[in-house]
Amino acid sequence: MPASQSSSAQQARQAIADRLREILLDSGLSARELARQAGWDETKCSRLVHARTPPSDSDIRQWCNICGAPEEIPNLIAASRNAKNAYLEWRRVQRSQRRLQELGLELYENNSLYRFYSSNLVPWPLQVPSYMRAVMQRFSDFHRAGNTDIEEGVKMRVARRRYLEDGTRRCFMVIEESVLRNRIFGDDIMREQLRYILKTMRQPNISLGVIPWMGRRDQHSSETFHIYGDVNVSIELTSAIVTITQPAEIELYVRCFEDLKAAAVHGPQARALVEAATAALP
């Protein structure tokens, strides 16, 4: 599993670099001549075509215009921006909870199957507002973001539930038992949260599996990840969110999820673990 930048992001950057190289070859210009006309150091062309440096929008415009291929500009700029978003550092969006909550809206709208695995926090479909608020405040404090729109972020996250209320979408979640037992927030918050989990587990299009501390398993715990349909995986790292769209990588995460799901208990056994965690609170 990726621990840093996903190979999907690098593959996307390489595809852009390959296209820039093709445009240069088709133009008949040398890299030296292109650099001269663009006013660049000659080594910049080498860095761009070997994907060592991602091109800016301005770099793409100059490259294509000098090579006589202005029609390539819109598609290359769009592809370059998508590649940058494949590895999105939290610091780029951390100052606004509104922006953070908007990140996945298109995925929620366009997919009818969600699969979430979490090793540290209750997944968002099961979160109560007080838990959401505590998560956002903890994020803001850790990243020194100084968020002032946390309440707006909470309202937006609560509003996401509409995607699961009409029954047309299915959500499968797997969490570690430690998620139920973690004391990172206040006892009152956790009590309310655990009671809400028990209530939501009765919703027919929502499935929750809990991996017991002492249970047997074939798959070790992993970073938190969300699978949307069969087209996108979002992975939450400490410093960034990684988006995977390569089919081979998605298939690995689907397999990982199925292994984790097989190690989890469901139904009455899962409810028993939630009830035990509730009873353990002072």
Automatic annotation (TrEMBL):
Species annotation: Nonomuraea rosea
HTH cro/C1-type domain location: 19-74
Protein name from the UniProt record: Helix-turn-helix transcriptional regulator
SUPFAM superfamilies membership: lambda repressor-like DNA-binding domains
Pfam families recorded: DUF5753, HTH_31
Signal peptide start-end: none
